[in-house]
Amino acid sequence: MYETFSVAGRTALVTGATSGIGAMAAAALAEAGATVHIVARGAADCEETAAKLPGAVALPGDVSTLDGVEALAGHVTGPVHILVNNAGTVRENPLGSFTEADWDDVVDLNLKAPFFLTQRLLPALRAGASPHAPATVINVGSVGGLRVGPRQTYSYAASKAGLHQLTKSMARRLAGEHITVNAIAPGLFPSRMTPGDGEAVQAAVSASVPRGRIGRVGDIGGVVRFLASPAAGYITGTIIPVDGGMSL
Ligand SMILES: NC(=O)c1ccc[n+]([C@@H]2O[C@H](COP(=O)([O-])OP(=O)(O)OC[C@H]3O[C@@H](n4cnc5c(N)ncnc54)[C@H](OP(=O)(O)O)[C@@H]3O)[C@@H](O)[C@H]2O)c1
Q1: Is 4 a member of any domain?
Q2: Is 246 in the pocket of ligand 1 (CB under 6 A)?
Q3: Ligand 1 atom, smallest distance to 40 CA
Q4: Is residue 2 a part of any domain in this protein?
Q5: Residue-wise DSSP of 90-119
Q6: Which of 7, 26, 45, 232 could cysteine-pair with 34, CB 3.0–4.6 Å?
Q7: Known catalytic residue: 234?
Q8: Range(s) of the domain holding residue 182
Q9: 88 in ligand 1 pocket by Cβ < 6 Å?
Q10: Would the CB of 193 count as within 6 Å of ligand 1?
Q11: Whether the predicted pLDDT of 205 surpasses 80
């Protein structure tokens, strides 16, 4: 039977799994016994990440286009129990000079990709779903979609708030098919996206976070493992801030 907090033997696909939060999620799932497909554009990075994790499989692909999503979904055989829509990007520019590319690059990856990848993987998710152990989609939103910060990241904030709402609409639609859809909304975590946020910025952010620090690997691993396990089977359509209280 199903162990409440176990993800052992389950198949997962994590986008953007070669860096930052996606790598943290992939490691947490693989170390707990899931077979994790490592998705990112960089094939060598996918191989390298997969080689470090027990049972992980490299699955390079670009999810920012429908062609890329379809190519990726075409390589998935068998049931998928856990889909982590994590790949994301950000652009920062003053309002008056924010470009169409600043908009499209972000919205295509942060909002369009989770929708169409989930849509194209529905047969695999349905095949992995059961009443006692639902298949689960975990969307990686952001504290930036919960409250407006000081940075001029217009498309990012809109895409993440949109992803949170998309999470709820897909959750409602899929609940009856034993597929749960939830989002996590991280605060600041070390990653490729945040290298400019060096020590001074991290210290300043930490000072403004009620928990007094930026996020760590285990902060992502814990919530992802929980949401991916049967223990979270009655939770759907939620947005869980993982931000040390930053969004309060
Ligand atoms: N870090 C934070 O503080 C923070 C806070 C809140 C929310 N988030 C969210 O967390 C998610 C991950 O962010 P991160 O900071 O961990 O990012 P990151 O370190 O920049 O890593 C991004 C990952 O996504 C992959 N990727 C980029 N474009 C892709 C594409 N078109 N198709 C497939 N994979 C792609 C990258 O690999 P390739 O370049 O090889 O494709 C890489 O593996 C994002 O959705 C972000 O908005 C991050």
Answers
A1: no
A2: no
A3: 34
A4: no
A5: -----GGG--HHHHHHHHIIIIIHHHHHHH
A6: 7
A7: no
A8: 11-242
A9: yes
A10: yes
A11: no
CA–centroid distance, residue 133 to ligand 1 (Å): 28
- Per-residue pLDDT reduced to its tens digit, 90-112: 999 999 999 999 999 999 999 99
Name the strands in the sheet holding 135-140, side by side, starting at the edge strand that comes first in the sequence.
57-58, 35-39, 11-15, 82-85, 135-140, 179-186, 239-242
Residue-wise pLDDT tens digits, 128-149? 999 999 999 999 999 999 999 9
Q: How far is the CA of 3 from the centre of ligand 1 (A)?
A: 31
Structure tokens at 33: 């016994």
CATH number, domain with residue 206: 3.40.50.720
The number of domains in the chain is 1
Q: Is residue 45 part of a domain?
A: yes
Chain centroid to CA 24: how far?
10
6 within some domain:
no
Ligand 1 lined by 197 (C-beta under 6 Å): no
Note the pLDDT of residue 2.
64
